Protein backbone atom coordinates (compact mmCIF):
# COMPACT_ATOMS: atom_id res chain seq x y z
CA UNK A 1 0.00 0.00 0.00
CA UNK A 2 1.26 3.45 -0.92
CA UNK A 3 0.20 6.67 0.77
CA UNK A 4 0.86 10.13 -0.56
CA UNK A 5 0.75 13.73 0.58
CA UNK A 6 -0.08 17.08 -0.95
CA UNK A 7 0.06 20.74 -0.15
CA UNK A 8 -3.27 22.00 1.15
CA UNK A 9 -4.77 25.24 -0.14
CA UNK A 10 -3.92 26.87 3.19
CA UNK A 11 -0.24 25.97 2.82
CA UNK A 12 0.18 23.04 5.21
CA UNK A 13 0.99 19.48 4.14
CA UNK A 14 -1.68 16.76 4.35
CA UNK A 15 -0.25 13.27 4.87
CA UNK A 16 -2.92 10.72 3.93
CA UNK A 17 -1.14 7.99 5.93
CA UNK A 18 -2.04 9.90 9.10
CA UNK A 19 -5.76 9.60 8.38
CA UNK A 20 -7.31 6.61 10.14
CA UNK A 21 -10.19 6.68 7.63
CA UNK A 22 -7.92 6.53 4.59
CA UNK A 23 -5.67 3.78 5.99
CA UNK A 24 -8.68 1.57 6.87
CA UNK A 25 -10.30 2.35 3.50
CA UNK A 26 -7.23 1.44 1.43
CA UNK A 27 -6.57 -1.66 3.56
CA UNK A 28 -10.11 -2.85 2.80
CA UNK A 29 -9.45 -2.49 -0.95
CA UNK A 30 -6.52 -4.89 -0.56
CA UNK A 31 -8.63 -7.41 1.38
CA UNK A 32 -11.46 -7.17 -1.17
CA UNK A 33 -9.02 -7.94 -3.97
CA UNK A 34 -8.56 -11.32 -2.31
CA UNK A 35 -12.24 -11.95 -1.59
CA UNK A 36 -13.63 -10.79 -4.96
CA UNK A 37 -10.68 -10.69 -7.40
CA UNK A 38 -12.83 -10.16 -10.52
CA UNK A 39 -13.80 -6.67 -9.39
CA UNK A 40 -10.25 -5.45 -10.05
CA UNK A 41 -10.57 -5.97 -13.80
CA UNK A 42 -14.20 -4.88 -14.06
CA UNK A 43 -15.44 -2.07 -16.27
CA UNK A 44 -18.93 -2.01 -14.72
CA UNK A 45 -19.22 1.19 -12.65
CA UNK A 46 -21.33 -0.56 -10.01
CA UNK A 47 -18.60 -3.18 -9.48
CA UNK A 48 -16.06 -0.46 -8.81
CA UNK A 49 -18.57 1.47 -6.68
CA UNK A 50 -19.19 -1.68 -4.63
CA UNK A 51 -15.45 -1.84 -3.91
CA UNK A 52 -15.48 1.80 -2.85
CA UNK A 53 -18.65 1.55 -0.73
CA UNK A 54 -17.44 -1.49 1.24
CA UNK A 55 -14.09 0.26 1.83
CA UNK A 56 -15.94 3.32 3.14
CA UNK A 57 -18.23 1.25 5.38
CA UNK A 58 -15.24 -0.70 6.70
CA UNK A 59 -13.52 2.56 7.52
CA UNK A 60 -16.56 3.91 9.35
CA UNK A 61 -17.04 0.65 11.25
CA UNK A 62 -13.60 1.06 12.78
CA UNK A 63 -15.04 4.16 14.42
CA UNK A 64 -18.59 3.00 15.15
CA UNK A 65 -17.36 -0.16 16.89
CA UNK A 66 -14.70 1.67 18.91
CA UNK A 67 -16.37 2.23 22.28
CA UNK A 68 -13.59 4.58 23.45
CA UNK A 69 -14.30 6.89 20.52
CA UNK A 70 -18.04 6.78 21.17
CA UNK A 71 -17.76 7.54 24.88
CA UNK A 72 -15.36 10.42 24.13
CA UNK A 73 -17.70 11.74 21.45
CA UNK A 74 -20.64 11.59 23.85
CA UNK A 75 -18.65 13.47 26.47
CA UNK A 76 -17.81 16.22 23.95
CA UNK A 77 -21.32 16.60 22.54
CA UNK A 78 -23.21 16.14 25.78
CA UNK A 79 -24.95 13.01 24.52
CA UNK A 80 -28.21 14.90 23.99
CA UNK A 81 -28.84 14.03 20.35
CA UNK A 82 -28.08 10.54 19.05
CA UNK A 83 -28.40 11.83 15.47
CA UNK A 84 -25.15 13.64 16.14
CA UNK A 85 -23.43 10.29 15.66
CA UNK A 86 -24.01 10.81 11.94
CA UNK A 87 -21.05 13.20 12.08
CA UNK A 88 -18.92 10.11 12.71
CA UNK A 89 -19.89 8.86 9.25
CA UNK A 90 -17.80 11.53 7.53
CA UNK A 91 -14.91 10.05 5.53
CA UNK A 92 -11.42 11.62 5.30
CA UNK A 93 -12.23 14.95 6.93
CA UNK A 94 -8.84 16.69 6.65
CA UNK A 95 -8.28 15.59 3.05
CA UNK A 96 -11.93 16.21 2.14
CA UNK A 97 -12.06 19.64 3.75
CA UNK A 98 -9.20 20.78 1.55
CA UNK A 99 -10.46 19.49 -1.80
CA UNK A 100 -14.12 20.31 -0.98
CA UNK A 101 -13.35 23.74 0.45
CA UNK A 102 -15.22 25.54 -2.30
CA UNK A 103 -18.35 23.47 -1.58
CA UNK A 104 -18.31 24.22 2.12
CA UNK A 105 -17.89 20.56 3.08
CA UNK A 106 -15.60 19.21 5.78
CA UNK A 107 -15.39 15.64 4.47
CA UNK A 108 -14.68 13.67 1.30
CA UNK A 109 -17.83 11.53 1.50
CA UNK A 110 -20.55 10.96 4.04
CA UNK A 111 -22.32 7.68 4.77
CA UNK A 112 -25.50 9.38 5.98
CA UNK A 113 -26.90 10.55 2.65
CA UNK A 114 -29.91 10.43 0.35
CA UNK A 115 -28.27 9.78 -3.03
CA UNK A 116 -30.22 7.87 -5.70
CA UNK A 117 -29.24 5.79 -8.70
CA UNK A 118 -32.42 6.74 -10.55
CA UNK A 119 -35.71 8.38 -9.69
CA UNK A 120 -39.09 6.80 -10.13
CA UNK A 121 -41.34 8.00 -13.00
CA UNK A 122 -43.04 11.29 -12.06
CA UNK A 123 -41.13 11.40 -8.78
CA UNK A 124 -39.89 14.83 -7.68
CA UNK A 125 -36.30 14.49 -6.49
CA UNK A 126 -33.55 17.07 -6.17
CA UNK A 127 -31.38 16.56 -9.27
CA UNK A 128 -28.22 16.87 -7.18
CA UNK A 129 -29.16 13.59 -5.47
CA UNK A 130 -29.12 11.59 -8.75
CA UNK A 131 -25.59 10.23 -9.20
CA UNK A 132 -23.73 9.87 -12.46
CA UNK A 133 -23.88 6.32 -13.79
CA UNK A 134 -20.30 6.43 -15.08
CA UNK A 135 -18.73 7.79 -11.87
CA UNK A 136 -17.86 4.98 -9.41
CA UNK A 137 -17.21 7.43 -6.58
CA UNK A 138 -20.64 9.02 -6.87
CA UNK A 139 -22.28 5.62 -7.30
CA UNK A 140 -20.63 4.32 -4.14
CA UNK A 141 -22.55 6.90 -2.10
CA UNK A 142 -25.81 5.14 -3.01
CA UNK A 143 -24.79 1.75 -1.60
CA UNK A 144 -22.92 3.08 1.44
CA UNK A 145 -25.92 5.32 2.18
CA UNK A 146 -28.20 2.27 2.12
CA UNK A 147 -25.98 0.30 4.47
CA UNK A 148 -25.66 3.15 6.95
CA UNK A 149 -29.44 3.67 6.87
CA UNK A 150 -29.87 0.04 7.94
CA UNK A 151 -27.45 0.57 10.83
CA UNK A 152 -29.39 3.64 11.91
CA UNK A 153 -32.75 1.87 11.66
CA UNK A 154 -31.36 -1.04 13.67
CA UNK A 155 -30.42 1.40 16.44
CA UNK A 156 -33.84 3.06 16.36
CA UNK A 157 -35.53 -0.33 16.63
CA UNK A 158 -33.48 -1.54 19.58
CA UNK A 159 -34.83 -1.12 23.11
CA UNK A 160 -33.25 1.94 24.67
CA UNK A 161 -32.31 2.79 28.23
CA UNK A 162 -32.48 6.22 29.80
CA UNK A 163 -28.93 5.77 31.01
CA UNK A 164 -26.31 7.10 28.55
CA UNK A 165 -23.77 4.33 29.09
CA UNK A 166 -26.41 1.63 28.83
CA UNK A 167 -27.53 3.23 25.56
CA UNK A 168 -24.05 3.00 24.10
CA UNK A 169 -23.41 -0.52 25.38
CA UNK A 170 -26.84 -1.96 24.67
CA UNK A 171 -28.04 -0.02 21.64
CA UNK A 172 -25.45 1.69 19.51
CA UNK A 173 -22.53 -0.74 19.50
CA UNK A 174 -24.64 -3.96 19.30
CA UNK A 175 -26.72 -2.49 16.46
CA UNK A 176 -23.64 -1.49 14.48
CA UNK A 177 -22.00 -4.86 15.15
CA UNK A 178 -25.10 -6.83 14.07
CA UNK A 179 -25.42 -5.02 10.74
CA UNK A 180 -21.66 -5.08 10.14
CA UNK A 181 -21.72 -8.85 10.54
CA UNK A 182 -24.26 -9.10 7.70
CA UNK A 183 -22.51 -6.52 5.51
CA UNK A 184 -19.18 -8.34 5.55
CA UNK A 185 -20.55 -11.90 5.50
CA UNK A 186 -22.43 -10.96 2.33
CA UNK A 187 -19.05 -10.77 0.59
CA UNK A 188 -18.66 -14.55 0.98
CA UNK A 189 -21.93 -15.09 -0.90
CA UNK A 190 -21.13 -12.54 -3.61
CA UNK A 191 -20.96 -14.27 -7.01
CA UNK A 192 -17.80 -13.95 -9.14
CA UNK A 193 -17.58 -11.60 -12.10
CA UNK A 194 -18.67 -8.01 -12.63
CA UNK A 195 -21.09 -7.88 -9.75
CA UNK A 196 -23.72 -5.17 -9.39
CA UNK A 197 -25.57 -3.57 -6.49
CA UNK A 198 -28.39 -6.07 -7.04
CA UNK A 199 -25.90 -8.95 -6.73
CA UNK A 200 -24.69 -7.51 -3.44
CA UNK A 201 -28.26 -6.89 -2.25
CA UNK A 202 -29.14 -10.54 -2.81
CA UNK A 203 -25.94 -11.61 -1.06
CA UNK A 204 -26.89 -9.39 1.88
CA UNK A 205 -30.30 -11.08 2.10
CA UNK A 206 -28.79 -14.58 2.10
CA UNK A 207 -26.14 -13.56 4.66
CA UNK A 208 -28.83 -12.12 6.92
CA UNK A 209 -31.02 -15.21 6.71
CA UNK A 210 -28.15 -17.63 7.33
CA UNK A 211 -26.70 -15.57 10.19
CA UNK A 212 -29.78 -14.72 12.21
CA UNK A 213 -33.00 -16.60 12.88
CA UNK A 214 -35.02 -13.39 12.63
CA UNK A 215 -33.38 -11.01 10.14
CA UNK A 216 -36.72 -9.82 8.74
CA UNK A 217 -36.19 -6.17 9.65
CA UNK A 218 -32.74 -5.83 8.05
CA UNK A 219 -33.99 -7.60 4.91
CA UNK A 220 -37.10 -5.43 4.79
CA UNK A 221 -35.11 -2.23 5.25
CA UNK A 222 -32.64 -3.21 2.53
CA UNK A 223 -35.43 -3.94 0.04
CA UNK A 224 -37.18 -0.66 0.79
CA UNK A 225 -33.97 1.33 0.32
CA UNK A 226 -33.13 -0.44 -2.94
CA UNK A 227 -36.54 0.57 -4.29
CA UNK A 228 -36.43 4.12 -2.89
CA UNK A 229 -33.01 4.80 -4.34
CA UNK A 230 -33.88 3.45 -7.78
CA UNK A 231 -31.74 0.31 -7.89
CA UNK A 232 -34.72 -2.03 -8.38
CA UNK A 233 -38.31 -1.28 -9.34
CA UNK A 234 -39.93 -3.81 -7.03
CA UNK A 235 -38.80 -5.43 -3.78
CA UNK A 236 -39.43 -8.87 -5.30
CA UNK A 237 -36.58 -8.18 -7.74
CA UNK A 238 -34.20 -8.91 -4.86
CA UNK A 239 -35.83 -12.19 -3.87
CA UNK A 240 -35.22 -14.18 -7.07
CA UNK A 241 -32.45 -16.79 -6.81
CA UNK A 242 -31.99 -16.41 -3.06
CA UNK A 243 -33.91 -19.50 -1.98
CA UNK A 244 -31.98 -22.68 -1.08
CA UNK A 245 -31.15 -24.95 -4.03
CA UNK A 246 -32.75 -28.40 -4.13
CA UNK A 247 -29.58 -30.46 -4.32
CA UNK A 248 -29.41 -33.83 -2.60
CA UNK A 249 -26.21 -33.69 -0.61
CA UNK A 250 -25.42 -35.57 2.59
CA UNK A 251 -23.30 -34.11 5.36
CA UNK A 252 -20.56 -36.63 4.53
CA UNK A 253 -20.56 -35.60 0.86
CA UNK A 254 -20.43 -31.92 1.80
CA UNK A 255 -17.45 -32.46 4.09
CA UNK A 256 -15.60 -34.48 1.44
CA UNK A 257 -16.00 -31.52 -0.91
CA UNK A 258 -14.54 -29.23 1.74
CA UNK A 259 -11.47 -31.44 2.04
CA UNK A 260 -10.69 -32.05 -1.63
CA UNK A 261 -10.16 -29.67 -4.57
CA UNK A 262 -10.35 -32.69 -6.89
CA UNK A 263 -13.80 -33.56 -5.54
CA UNK A 264 -14.89 -29.96 -6.08
CA UNK A 265 -13.71 -30.05 -9.71
CA UNK A 266 -15.63 -33.28 -10.34
CA UNK A 267 -18.68 -31.88 -8.55
CA UNK A 268 -18.72 -28.74 -10.71
CA UNK A 269 -18.33 -30.76 -13.92
CA UNK A 270 -21.24 -32.98 -12.92
CA UNK A 271 -23.49 -30.08 -11.92
CA UNK A 272 -22.93 -27.44 -14.59
CA UNK A 273 -26.66 -26.84 -14.66
CA UNK A 274 -26.70 -26.05 -10.94
CA UNK A 275 -23.88 -23.54 -11.46
CA UNK A 276 -25.67 -22.17 -14.57
CA UNK A 277 -22.57 -22.53 -16.71
CA UNK A 278 -23.58 -21.83 -20.35
CA UNK A 279 -23.32 -24.75 -22.77
CA UNK A 280 -19.84 -24.98 -24.26
CA UNK A 281 -18.41 -22.23 -22.08
CA UNK A 282 -14.94 -22.54 -20.62
CA UNK A 283 -15.02 -21.99 -16.89
CA UNK A 284 -12.60 -21.70 -14.01
CA UNK A 285 -13.01 -22.58 -10.35
CA UNK A 286 -11.81 -20.03 -7.85
CA UNK A 287 -10.01 -21.20 -4.68
CA UNK A 288 -12.52 -22.62 -2.22
CA UNK A 289 -13.49 -20.60 0.82
CA UNK A 290 -14.14 -22.21 4.21
CA UNK A 291 -15.89 -19.95 6.71
CA UNK A 292 -16.33 -20.77 10.37
CA UNK A 293 -18.94 -18.49 11.93
CA UNK A 294 -19.70 -18.19 15.62
CA UNK A 295 -22.57 -16.20 17.07
CA UNK A 296 -23.06 -16.85 20.76
CA UNK A 297 -23.55 -20.59 21.17
CA UNK A 298 -24.42 -21.05 17.50
CA UNK A 299 -21.66 -22.21 15.18
CA UNK A 300 -21.82 -22.62 11.43
CA UNK A 301 -19.31 -24.04 8.96
CA UNK A 302 -19.72 -23.08 5.30
CA UNK A 303 -18.02 -24.05 2.08
CA UNK A 304 -18.17 -21.54 -0.78
CA UNK A 305 -17.55 -22.86 -4.30
CA UNK A 306 -17.20 -20.10 -6.87
CA UNK A 307 -17.15 -20.71 -10.62
CA UNK A 308 -16.72 -18.06 -13.32
CA UNK A 309 -16.84 -17.83 -17.10
CA UNK A 310 -16.90 -15.16 -19.80
CA UNK A 311 -19.78 -13.91 -21.91
CA UNK A 312 -19.68 -11.42 -24.77
CA UNK A 313 -21.27 -7.98 -24.94
CA UNK A 314 -21.19 -5.74 -28.02
CA UNK A 315 -20.02 -2.15 -27.56
CA UNK A 316 -19.08 0.14 -30.45
CA UNK A 317 -16.82 2.86 -29.07
CA UNK A 318 -14.78 3.63 -32.18
CA UNK A 319 -12.49 2.07 -34.76
CA UNK A 320 -9.57 1.64 -32.36
CA UNK A 321 -11.31 -1.17 -30.47
CA UNK A 322 -13.20 -4.25 -31.62
CA UNK A 323 -16.90 -4.45 -30.84
CA UNK A 324 -16.80 -7.64 -28.78
CA UNK A 325 -16.06 -7.20 -25.07
CA UNK A 326 -15.55 -10.03 -22.57
CA UNK A 327 -17.63 -9.78 -19.40
CA UNK A 328 -16.92 -12.07 -16.44
CA UNK A 329 -19.89 -13.73 -14.77
CA UNK A 330 -20.21 -16.56 -12.31
CA UNK A 331 -22.01 -18.45 -9.57
CA UNK A 332 -21.38 -18.92 -5.86
CA UNK A 333 -22.64 -22.12 -4.28
CA UNK A 334 -22.74 -21.83 -0.49
CA UNK A 335 -22.92 -25.16 1.32
CA UNK A 336 -23.72 -25.35 5.03
CA UNK A 337 -21.47 -28.27 6.04
CA UNK A 338 -23.44 -28.98 9.22
CA UNK A 339 -26.85 -29.24 7.56
CA UNK A 340 -25.95 -29.85 3.88
CA UNK A 341 -28.21 -26.96 2.78
CA UNK A 342 -27.19 -25.07 -0.33
CA UNK A 343 -27.68 -21.45 -1.44
CA UNK A 344 -26.85 -20.19 -4.92
CA UNK A 345 -26.19 -16.72 -6.30
CA UNK A 346 -25.39 -15.97 -9.95
CA UNK A 347 -24.21 -12.67 -11.45
CA UNK A 348 -27.20 -10.97 -13.03
CA UNK A 349 -27.48 -9.31 -16.45
CA UNK A 350 -29.81 -6.42 -17.20
CA UNK A 351 -30.04 -3.88 -20.06
CA UNK A 352 -29.36 -1.12 -17.51
CA UNK A 353 -26.03 -2.67 -16.48
CA UNK A 354 -25.05 -3.10 -20.15
CA UNK A 355 -25.86 0.58 -20.64
CA UNK A 356 -23.69 1.49 -17.65
CA UNK A 357 -20.74 -0.40 -19.14
CA UNK A 358 -21.17 1.30 -22.51
CA UNK A 359 -21.32 4.76 -20.94
CA UNK A 360 -18.14 4.06 -19.01
CA UNK A 361 -16.31 2.77 -22.09
CA UNK A 362 -17.43 5.78 -24.16
CA UNK A 363 -16.37 8.19 -21.39
CA UNK A 364 -12.94 6.59 -21.05
CA UNK A 365 -12.46 6.47 -24.82
CA UNK A 366 -13.27 10.17 -25.19
CA UNK A 367 -10.84 11.01 -22.39
CA UNK A 368 -8.22 8.77 -24.05
CA UNK A 369 -7.94 6.68 -20.89
CA UNK A 370 -8.21 3.33 -22.73
CA UNK A 371 -5.03 1.92 -24.20
CA UNK A 372 -4.40 -1.30 -26.10
CA UNK A 373 -2.07 -3.46 -24.07
CA UNK A 374 0.26 -4.25 -26.96
CA UNK A 375 0.69 -0.54 -27.65
CA UNK A 376 1.22 0.45 -24.05
CA UNK A 377 4.60 1.94 -23.19
CA UNK A 378 6.77 0.33 -20.55
CA UNK A 379 6.77 3.37 -18.30
CA UNK A 380 4.92 2.93 -15.02
CA UNK A 381 3.57 6.46 -15.25
CA UNK A 382 1.78 5.83 -18.54
CA UNK A 383 0.34 2.47 -17.52
CA UNK A 384 -0.80 3.82 -14.16
CA UNK A 385 -2.84 6.55 -15.84
CA UNK A 386 -4.61 4.26 -18.33
CA UNK A 387 -6.96 1.29 -18.37
CA UNK A 388 -5.38 -1.45 -20.45
CA UNK A 389 -7.36 -3.35 -23.07
CA UNK A 390 -6.05 -6.74 -24.18
CA UNK A 391 -7.17 -7.83 -27.67
CA UNK A 392 -7.49 -11.62 -27.51
CA UNK A 393 -8.49 -12.91 -30.94
CA UNK A 394 -10.82 -10.00 -31.56
CA UNK A 395 -12.36 -9.96 -28.09
CA UNK A 396 -11.54 -7.01 -25.82
CA UNK A 397 -10.54 -7.74 -22.20
CA UNK A 398 -10.24 -4.96 -19.62
CA UNK A 399 -7.23 -5.11 -17.30
CA UNK A 400 -6.99 -2.98 -14.19
CA UNK A 401 -10.40 -1.33 -14.26
CA UNK A 402 -9.90 -0.63 -10.55
CA UNK A 403 -7.50 2.14 -11.58
CA UNK A 404 -10.64 4.13 -12.35
CA UNK A 405 -10.96 4.78 -8.63
CA UNK A 406 -7.71 6.73 -8.76
CA UNK A 407 -7.32 8.20 -12.25
CA UNK A 408 -10.87 9.55 -12.69
CA UNK A 409 -11.48 12.71 -10.68
CA UNK A 410 -14.18 12.62 -8.04
CA UNK A 411 -16.96 15.02 -8.96
Gist?
With about 400 residues, the protein is α+β, with helices and mostly antiparallel strands. It is built from 14 helices and 12 strands. The strands form 3 sheets. Strands 5, 6, 7, 8, 9, 10, 11 and 12 form an 8-stranded mixed β-sheet that branches. The protein has a two-stranded antiparallel sheet with strand order 1-2. A two-stranded antiparallel sheet has the order 3-4.
What does this structure look like?
With 411 residues, the protein is an alpha+beta fold. It has 2 domains: 5-356, no CATH class; 357-407, no CATH class. Helix content is 43%, strand content 17%. Strands 5, 6, 7, 8, 9, 10, 11 and 12 form an 8-stranded mixed β-sheet that branches. The protein is globular, with a radius of gyration of 22 Å. The two termini are 24 Å apart.
